[in-house]
Amino acid sequence: MAEIIHSADLIVVGGGMAGLIAGVRAAELGLSVGVLEQGTSDRYLCNTRYSGGIFHLAYNDVKIPEADLMEAMRVITAGAIDPALAQVLARNGRLLVDWLTKQGARFIHGGPAWQNWMLAPPRPLTAGLEWIGRGPDVMLRKLGEHLRAAGSNLFLGTRATALRMQDGRCVGVDAVRDGVEIAFAAGAVVIADGGFQGDLALVGKHIGGVPDRLKQRGAQTGLGAGLRMAEAVGASVTRLDRFYGHMLSRDAMHNDRVWPYPEVDAIAAAGLLVGPDGRRFADEGRGGIYLANEVARLADPLGTSIVFDAKIWEGPGRSARIPANPQLARAGATIHQGPDLASAAKAAGLPVDAVAATVAEYNKALRDNTLHTLTPARTSEKYPAMPVETAPFYVIPACAGITYTMGGLRIDTDARVLGQDGQPIPGLYAAGSTTGGIEGGDVAGYVGGLTKAGVFALCAAEHVARTRGGAA
Ligand SMILES: Cc1cc2nc3c(=O)[nH]c(=O)nc-3n(C[C@H](O)[C@H](O)[C@H](O)COP(=O)(O)OP(=O)(O)OC[C@H]3O[C@@H](n4cnc5c(N)ncnc54)[C@H](O)[C@@H]3O)c2cc1C
């Protein structure tokens, strides 16, 4: 057995938004806390640091009425969200942003109402990765300082490897630091390691067969440790097959200027997404997160292309916060263009006749209002289908970007990890992208990673404090 080098009321695995919020809140409530973070530098990478910093719930302001938020989350996940967990989010999203404000967060309005709670300073509205000194980076550093100021610890370079159990209760964590096995004793443990998207074996097993042909659209620090550690002590998991991500230019595989932004979701959702055979294979009307999930399951996730026209490029192409038009061209991405569809398809190396037939069939179905009869059917309610008929015509080679996994550890409304019998595993909690039951499902519904992380981190800390006699 590794030597116990530290004991605390609460040990947290992971120093992202979920882990640091859980740690700071628990310390605020009088508990001693140790946060274990595998990253070694002061600005260790994690998805939180890369994020846009927008706290929303299903693309709504977290302060609209609770019932409206619950309905929006139900609709966006097509019922996949556990209603009890949805209620916790709807009730506490507002408390989370208020609590963060008290911790020194500065929020600005990013534009539309769902961006009313965006951490400042915001990232510039340009292509590529920009995070140093931006809102989420500033917030993480503030939370780290608060943790230390409260007398608790952030252990950098410390990778959790296993949970310690005694009489069915989680009582600590085994870890590795500088190649040495060490251990932490704890009254309770919160797993907040950020998901399993960075572990290609797990991604291949649960999501798609060729994971190295997906673009890692995040920090690649979520390596599934939390999932493995908790499953080893009997935790139950939800559907693990869905992820939050976006459609990107295929150049993202080798050009760092075209990821994580701009996404090409809006173009794909207005036009057509075809495979190397020039045929559609998924319902574009369900949007880019869904499409990225469908692409990930293909035999060749790097074989898809978006086919569209001038009206889509000038309309939806300019609609995103960091729009594909003109950011993609500025970042040097491949955009095939032609005065007619055939020349654009030929330039992209697609079979010209098949693309022409696919687009003709699609345009006719759109005119005749029979999109539902296409194979696969094309919905148009969420993202309206637009005709592809106005020159110039375009083809963008695409790929799927995976940001974080949506499935994970099953938790209850206090963020307690549930065992195979549906009962909480005493002393074990989880928050953030390592949890499941909130997002995903058949439509790959996205509820909002930061709010999810923060709300359940607060719930975990408060439950630990209540059960250990803290001030909650
Ligand atoms: C480009 C981009 C933009 C985004 N924009 C938004 C947005 O605007 N709004 C939104 O809601 N969401 C957004 N997200 C998603 C959001 O960032 C995540 O949902 C959220 O940050 C998850 O927080 P977390 O604490 O669960 O994970 P993370 O922030 O990834 O933190 C997990 C931490 O655990 C550590 N760790 C992992 N394994 C171990 C181990 N074994 N031992 C010790 N430490 C370990 C990791 O190193 C990491 O620091 C975005 C993500 C990206 C990549």
Name the shape in a single word.
elongated
Provide the structure class: alpha/beta
Which consecutive residue ranges, at least 5 long each, have pLDDT under 50? none
Bound molecules: flavin-adenine dinucleotide
Tell me what the structure shows.
- The structure is a single chain.
- Helices cover 31% and strands 20% of the residues.
- It has 472 residues and is of the alpha/beta class.
- The protein folds into 2 domains: 3-239 and 406-467, FAD/NAD(P)-binding domain, CATH 3.50.50.60; 247-402, Succinate dehydrogenase/fumarate reductase flavoprotein, catalytic domain (Flavocytochrome C3, Chain A, domain 1, Alpha-Beta Complex).
- The strands form 3 sheets. Strands 1, 2, 5, 6, 7, 8, 15 and 16 form an 8-stranded mixed β-sheet that branches.
- The model has no long low-confidence stretch (mean pLDDT 97).
- The structure holds flavin-adenine dinucleotide (FAD).
- Flavin-adenine dinucleotide binds at residues 13-19, 36-39, 44, 46-48, 50-54, 159-160, 192-194, 217-218, 221-223, 225, 260, 403-404, 432-433, 448-451, 453.
Topology (SSEs and partners):
Layout: E1 3-13, H1 17-28, E2 33-36, H2 47-50, H3 66-76, H4 83-102, E3 107-108, E4 118-119, H5 135-149, E5 153-155, E6 158-166, E7 169-177, E8 180-191, H6 200-206, E9 215-216, H7 225-232, E10 243-249, H8 265-270, E11 272-274, H9 288-296, E12 304-309, H10 310-314, H11 324-330, E13 336-338, H12 341-347, H13 352-368, E14 393-405, E15 416-418, E16 424-430, H14 449-467
Parallel strand pairs: 1-2, 1-8, 2-5, 8-16, 9-14
Antiparallel strand pairs: 3-4, 6-7, 7-8, 10-14, 11-12, 12-14, 13-14, 15-16
Helix pairs in contact: 1-5, 1-14, 3-4, 4-14, 12-13
The structure holds flavin-adenine dinucleotide.
